[in-house]
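Reviewer 2 asked us to include a model.

Predict the structure of this chain.
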Amino acid sequence: MAKPQTIPHRWHPVFIHFPITCWVLATGLDVATMLMPVRNWVPGVDLIALAHLFIWLGVAVSIPAVIAGLIDYRIVSEEATGMIDRHATWMIAAITLFLIAGIWRLRGAAFDAPIPTALLFVELAGSMALVVGGRVASIVVFGHCGSVRSTTR
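Predicted model (structure tokens):
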């Protein structure tokens, strides 16, 4: 009887949704407060402070996502490594941009209403890097190039 082939569990997909969600919510909140400068249009919630929290929460939870991605990289087929390298480059750009946004907020713009336009552009650029990097990863995940090697146990 042939041994079944298994694919080791990949942890990166488990973690990646959290920083993406945090950063998209932060950017969305900042866009909303830019368009409607009433910062408390949700009673009792300071949306600029909430966006600030989401930026840093995203940075914090991106660390296990990156570590899991580096571990999962070992099971990527040779054919897919170029695409995964591009994905990693875009995601590093996104993490860097959101880290810049977080540091900028700590340096005085954190709770200004509305936030500086340049800070919003940094967040929007980070969001675009997320979109491009996610698209590159989806090409690998959905099999448009070799995806994950099977391993036998």
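Residues 81-109 form the longest helix (29 residues). The two ends are 14 Å apart (CA to CA). We have added this to the supplementary material.
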